[in-house]
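Quarterly update from the structural biology core.
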Amino acid sequence: MVEKGFVDALIATIGSCYGANSVTIRPNDSYTLGIPDVLCWRADGKCLAIEAKQISPLMPDPFHRGRRTGLMLKHPFMGPQISMLRRLDAVGVEAFGLIRMSTDVAFRIEPKDIPAKTGNFTYEDLRNYGRPICRRNGLWEIWRD
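Predicted structure, tokenized:
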């Protein structure tokens, strides 16, 4: 799956930034329907849950729509994924969707902004609801703090 490399990079980012001060796992969706792609518990008490998606093909410039029209995700957020992100968010976990748009830019989507009916976004929706997250020096800047 194309998203596997993106998830690998997110896990590597957490390991590089927090190392022994965090625990990160990648649940297997075939056994745990709705569980986010990345779960992390940090020694400082912060928890993170990321459902990672990736558009295909990636855009050369994610800040310019180009010829992209219609819905962006070939594999949209599914109902159980949306529900789980919202439940985790409600209990204080830093839970969100992360949609990779280009080699070094993804858009962070808060659970409340993921459309429950479609689980998908137009380019305009992503720009309106998403917050750009960049990869610098090989690490994704995913933390709010």
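The beta strands are 22-25, 38-42, 47-54, 94-100, 105-109, 131-136, 139-140.
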